[in-house]
Design brief:
With 113 residues, the chain is an alpha+beta fold. It folds into 2 domains: 50 residues, no CATH class; 60 residues, no CATH class. The protein has 3 helices and 5 strands. A 3-stranded antiparallel sheet has the order 1-2-3. It has a two-stranded antiparallel sheet with strand order 4-5. The two termini are 42 Å apart.
Length: 113
């Protein structure tokens, strides 16, 4: 199994014994950014991604495993994630209240006991 690191050697631009300069991709905007940190802070950020001895990454197993796409889609459907995935432009059927006629909206689901 090939496991990538937190940061590649190519991403480290400079290191002078005290400061480390590296570039990374901002996860929110997708833009590439450059950052300079003291060595201790850089190592602290790096170590946040290291698991303690004996721990396993959860995403390597079960429905989060890379080959479990069908199972993940089923889990998302069961948990109601589809509401966030399906665009709002899709017309959803509305059901009127039998007393006042206003449309009813599903606000939750309680599975049977």
């Amino acid at each position: 199994m090939c496991i990538g690191g937190v940061i590649g050697e190519r991403q480290i631009i400079a290191e002078d014994g005290e400061q480390v300069t590296f570039h990374y991709r901002d996860s929110k905007t997708g833009d590439e950014r450059t950052r300079t940190l003291p060595g201790e802070d850089f190592l602290w950020l790096l170590m946040q991604h290291v698991l303690p001895k004996g721990f396993r990454r959860v995403r390597d197993y079960g429905f989060l495993h890379g080959n479990a796409r069908k199972v993940l889609l089923l889990v998302q459907k069961v948990l109601g994630v589809w509401n966030r995935i399906v665009p709002e432009t899709i017309q959803r059927p509305t059901f009127p209240c039998r007393h006042c006629g206003h449309p009813l909206f599903v606000i939750g689901f309680r599975p049977p006991k």
